Amino acid sequence: MGKGLAGDFSLLRGEPPIEYLTKANQMEAEGRDMVRFEIGQPDFDTPDNVKEAAKKALDEGFTHYVPTMGIPELREAIQEDIYKTRGFRPDLEQIMVIPGAKPGLFFGLLATVQKGDEVIYQNPFYFQYDSLIGYMGAKKTQIPLYEEDEFRMTPEHIQERISDDTKLILLNSPQNPTGGVLTKKDVSAIAEMAEEHDAYILSDEIYSKMLYDGLEHHSPGCKDECRERTILVDGFSKAYSMTGWRLGYVVAPEELIHKMDLLLADAVSCTTSFVQKGGVEALKNGQDFVEYIMDKFAKRRKAIVEALNEVPGFSCIYPKGAFYVFPNIKETGMKSEELANYMIEEAGVCLLPGTAFGSQGEGFLRLSYASSLEDIEEGIRRMKQAMENL
Ligand code: PLP
């Protein structure tokens, strides 16, 4: 192919392990009834008021280029939301609208990390982190997450590995795939460590509105108000069920935002104009929707955790945020991948092995409970039966 490709693309992971999805799709196409627990997006429709706002924008001809940084109305709404949810008010110049949270992570890494730089992140991880960090040729320093710590990336474990060579710490709370949530104490200790070692923090807060049991979200951005070293990434995909809209934002030091603004301008020019109007509506009038879906998720969480604990060889702790459970299957004596395949083939249940998210996921499975209570009941009943049949 010409003179060859740039970079080693075998290092990019792209989408989640496609083989499980492909197998489940194939079986479904052949008429097999499958229960799907692998999907990482809420199963709710986008709220009507958000759709109406975008439709109105379309009807009014709001269909042209807008500023790369985002429309002022949305950046102001984000500024207000950050104040309400994190307690500080970033300057508008620190806020950039992006097409989904992922580009925020992509451009955040691109603007700060070079080949050979050390990046600290958790294992198990969200696919994109490992993929990009590997592709960029950065040094991967992974912090194992333990069930005993409720899957928090604890400051103690970071302390063991951080050094003055650390360029960036990637945080994700609430976390995918485990549902682990950092405490206020964790977050402030990590923010202090970053300051001490002059490292950036890239904080993926896409599940910030998805917490249970009255827990509050804590952001490392509170320490420096995203003026020194914190790059805060959040978005609309999960809390407002807007995955296909592609809408997110970054809050970061002004100097960094200007670099990311240049990258975004070269890559996409701007985030889709009328989609941004939907985002304004979501932030201004979407709180009831978030409460509605979180009430549903809380009921599903209880149902799935209780049911999984009845499956022979399984044990499952309550996730504190997001909509994933990460049951421990070590007592079954089976490997994660073996069990995930067995569940697809024998039980007609599609889920992911913990190892899809890194080596530390061995002995675990990941199930998303973005499914109805009926599906949860039926899926786990089948899994229990399959384990009893072994
Ligand atoms: N970060 C984490 C931890 C996620 O789980 C996801 C989606 O699954 C994303 C980022 C991507 O968010 P978006 O769809 O807004 O790009």
Structure write-up:
- The structure is a single chain.
- The protein has 13 helices and twelve strands.
- With 390 residues, the chain is α/β, with parallel strands linked by helices.
- It has two domains: 9-45 and 288-389, Aspartate Aminotransferase, domain 1, CATH 3.90.1150.10; 50-284, Aspartate Aminotransferase, domain 2 (3-Layer(aba) Sandwich), CATH 3.40.640.10.
- It has a seven-stranded mixed sheet, sandwiched between helices. It has a three-stranded antiparallel sheet with strand order 9-12-11.
- Strand 3 (118-123), helix 5 (127-135) and strand 4 form a beta-alpha-beta unit.
- The structure holds pyridoxal-5'-phosphate.
- Pyridoxal-5'-phosphate is lined by residues 40, 100-102, 126, 172, 176, 204, 206, 235, 237, 243, 248.
Indicate the percent of residues in helices: 40-55%
Outline, from the CA principal axes?
globular
CATH architecture descriptor text of the largest domain: 3-Layer(aba) Sandwich
Low-confidence stretches: none
Please indicate the count of domains.
2
Rg (C-alpha, Å): 21 Å
Number of helices: 13
Averaged pLDDT: 96
CATH C-level label of the largest domain? Alpha Beta
List the secondary-structure elements in sequence, H or E. HEHHEHEHEHEHEHEEHHHEHEEEH
Q: Looking across the biggest beta sheet, what order are the strands in?
A: 2-8-7-6-5-3-4
Counting DSSP E segments of at least 2 residues, the number of strands comes to 12
